[in-house]
Design brief:
Blueprint lengths: L1 H17 L29 H12 L2 E6 L2 E7 L1 H10 L12 H6 L9 H20 L4 H18 L4 E2 L1 H18 L8 H17 L2 H8 L11 H24 L8 H12 L8 H32 L1 H15 L14 H14 L8 E2 L4 E3 L2 E3 L4 E5 H5 L42 H18 E4 L11 E2 L5 E2 L4 E5 L2
Parallel strand pairs: 2-7
Antiparallel strand pairs: 1-2, 3-11, 4-7, 5-6, 8-11, 9-10
The structure holds protoporphyrin IX containing FE.
Length: 486
C-alpha cells in the first residue's frame, strides 16, 4: 500500500515537472501557473474583467498569465496600449495562430490573417468601403434605407414594450449585407435567419469553457466533443455564403459592382491567375469576417445605448432637443449633421465607452522579440490588449463609473474625444469598419430619438447594467418601451 502511494506520488511529481511552466527571463510577472491548466483554474471566466483588474493592481500595467502552457501578456491602461499598438505598431500587429478561432477560419479573411493576405485584403476592404461612401448609392442612403424598416416596426409597436435584441442584430446584419451584396434580406429570410443562428451558437461556444479546453489541450482537438459544432457551423456558413457568391457570379455586370462581392470578383478577374491572394475561398472567408465583425459589435453597442437612454431620461431629452433644433424641417438626418450636435455626439461616444463592446480586443501577437515597459517579450507571444482597462481607467475620465456624456464635453460644451477613447483599438490592426460603425450608430440613434421616446417599462424592475461577458459584451436582455413623439 505504502509502495503504491510512493509510486503514485513519484508519478505525479514527474508529470508536474514534465508539464511545469516557467516564465522566461525578464518576462512580465503574473500569478504562478499550474501544469497543464496554466492560470485558467484561478480565473473566473464569467467575470474575467474583474479578475484582470485585480491582477493589474497586484502586478502592474503589464503582466502575464498562462492559458494552458501558452503564455499571454495582458496590456492595461492607455499609456501601455499606445506604446505597444501605436509606437511599436508593426511588432504588436501579429495574430496568434493555433487557437480554435484560427482553425475555424482556415487561414482566410482579414481579421486573423497576417502577412500579404491580411495586408492586401485590409487595403481592399478600406478602399471599397470608402468608395461605397462616395458611389452612386451612398453608404448613408443604404443605412437610412434599413432604418426605415426599424422605424415602421417601432411605429407598429408604439405604446408597447418590445424585445430589441434580435431587431438590432438583424438591422446591423442587413446594413453589412447591403455593403457586401448590394441587397438587404427580409427579416424572415432563410439566409439571414440561418447565419444569425449559427453565429449565435458559435459565439456561445467561443465564450464558454469548451473553447478554452480546445485551446489549452491540443490532444483533445479531434475528439467528438461539443466544440466540433463550431466547425460544423462554420462549414454551413461558408456554404450559404458560397451560394451568394455563385449567384453574384451569374448575375454580375463586370465594372458595375453592386457591392463589395462584385468588386472582389472584378479584382480577381483583373489579377488573373497570378500568385495573388484573391480567390474564391478567400472571398468567402473575407465575407464571413466582415459580416460577423460588423454585426454583433454594432448591435450590442445599440443595445447598451438604448438601455442607458431609457434609464437616463434627462440625457435622452437633451439629445432630442438638440436633434429637433438642428434638423428642423429636414426630412432625414445626415452624418454631416453630427458637427452641429455636440451633446448627441458626446452621448453616442459615452454609450460606446460604457458598452465596452470588445473588452479584451481581438488577441494580438508579437512579430519579433521586443521590450515593453522594461520587460522582454519574445516573438510569437500572445498579447491581450485589455481595452476595457482603458475605457474605464480612473485617471482618464471625469466620470469613469457613470453613464455621463460630460466625459466627452469640455467646459464650453464642445465635443472632445479623449485619447483613452479606444473602443476600435489602435494601430495598424484598428477596426477597419470604424467609419461605417460610427455612421450607423449616429444615423440610427438620431433618427429613432427624433421619432420616438424610449421609456423603461413600469414592470421591469431595477435596471441591471452589468454586461454579459464575452468576446463581444452585451447587456442582459431587457424590454424597450416605445412611445411616439408628437
Ligand atoms: C461599434 C462597432 C464596432 C466595434 C466596437 C469594433 C471593434 C473592433 C475591434 C476592437 C477590433 C480589433 C482591433 C485590433 O485587433 O486591434 C476590430 C477589428 C475589425 N473590425 Fe470592428 N468594430 C465595430 C464594427 C465593425 C464593422 C461595422 C465592421 C465591418 C465592416 C468591422 C470590421 C472589422 C474588421 C474586418 C476587423 C479586423 C481588422 C484587422 O485585423 O486588420 N468592425 N473591430
Amino acid at each position: 500500500m505504502l509502495g503504491s502511494l510512493i509510486l503514485l506520488w513519484i508519478g505525479f511529481s514527474l508529470l508536474f515537472l514534465l508539464f511545469r511552466t516557467r516564465r522566461p527571463n525578464n518576462f512580465p510577472p503574473g500569478p504562478r501557473p499550474i501544469p497543464i491548466f496554466g492560470n485558467l483554474l484561478q480565473l473566473n471566466l464569467v467575470d474575467l474583467l474583474n479578475d484582470f483588474k485585480k491582477l493589474s493592481e497586484r502586478y502592474g500595467k503589464v503582466y502575464s498569465i498562462y492559458i494552458g502552457r501558452m503564455p499571454a501578456v495582458v496590456l492595461n491602461g492607455v499609456q501601455v496600449m499606445k506604446e505597444a499598438l501605436a509606437t511599436q505598431a508593426v511588432v504588436f500587429a501579429g495574430r496568434p495562430q493555433d487557437l480554435m478561432i484560427n482553425h475555424l477560419v482556415e487561414g482566410t479573411g482579414v481579421v486573423l490573417t497576417t502577412g500579404p493576405i491580411w495586408k492586401e485584403h485590409r487595403r481592399f476592404a478600406l478602399i471599397t468601403l470608402r468608395n461605397f461612401g462616395l458611389g452612386k448609392r451612398s453608404m448613408e442612403e443604404r443605412i437610412l434605407g434599413e432604418i426605415s424598416y426599424i422605424t415602421s416596426h417601432l411605429e407598429k409597436n408604439a405604446g408597447k414594450a418590445i424585445e430589441p435584441q434580435i431587431l438590432f442584430h438583424k438591422v446591423a446584419f442587413n446594413i453589412i449585407c447591403c455593403v457586401l451584396f448590394g441587397t438587404r434580406f427580409k427579416h424572415e429570410d432563410e439566409f439571414l435567419q440561418l447565419n444569425i443562428r449559427l453565429f449565435e451558437e458559435n459565439a456561445k461556444i467561443f465564450n464558454g469553457p469548451w473553447a478554452m479546453i480546445y485551446d489549452m489541450l491540443p490532444l483533445l482537438r479531434h475528439l467528438p466533443l461539443p466544440f466540433q459544432k463550431v466547425f460544423q457551423n462554420g462549414n454551413k456558413m461558408r456554404k450559404s455564403l458560397g451560394e451568394q457568391v455563385s449567384q453574384h457570379k451569374k448575375s454580375r455586370v463586370p465594372g458595375e459592382p453592386r457591392g463589395l462581392t462584385d468588386c472582389y470578383l472584378d479584382e480577381m478577374e483583373k489579377r488573373g491567375d497570378d500568385d495573388s491572394s484573391f480567390n474564391e475561398k478567400q472571398l468567402i472567408g473575407f465575407l464571413l469576417d466582415l459580416l460577423f465583425a460588423g454585426t454583433d459589435t454594432t448591435s450590442n453597442t445599440l443595445l447598451f445605448a438604448f438601455l442607458h437612454l431609457m434609464t437616463h431620461p434627462d440625457v435622452q431629452g437633451r439629445c432630442q432637443k438638440e436633434i429637433d433644433e438642428v434638423l428642423g424641417e429636414k426630412e432625414q438626418a445626415s452624418f454631416e449633421d453630427r458637427h452641429m450636435m455636440p451633446y448627441t455626439q458626446a452621448m453616442i461616444h459615452e454609450a460606446q465607452r460604457v458598452a465596452d463592446t470588445v473588452p479584451l480586443n481581438v488577441f494580438h501577437a508579437t512579430t519579433k522579440d521586443t521590450r515593453l515597459m522594461g520587460y522582454d517579450i519574445p516573438k510569437g507571444t500572445l498579447i491581450i490588449p485589455n481595452l476595457s482597462s482603458v475605457l474605464n481607467e480612473e485617471s482618464q475620465w471625469k466620470f469613469p463609473h457613470d453613464f455621463n456624456p460630460s466625459n466627452f464635453l469640455n467646459d464650453q460644451g464642445e465635443f472632445v474625444k479623449p485619447e483613452a477613447f479606444m473602443p476600435f483599438s489602435a494601430g495598424p490592426r484598428m477596426c477597419l469598419g470604424e467609419g461605417l460603425a460610427r455612421m450607423e450608430l449616429f444615423l440610427i440613434l438620431v433618427t429613432l430619438l427624433r421619432r420616438f421616446k424610449f421609456v423603461w417599462p413600469d414592470d421591469a424592475g431595477v435596471p441591471d447594467y452589468t454586461p454579459i461577458f464575452g468576446i463581444t459584451q452585451r447587456p442582459k436582455p431587457y424590454r424597450l418601451g416605445v412611445r411616439l413623439r408628437l
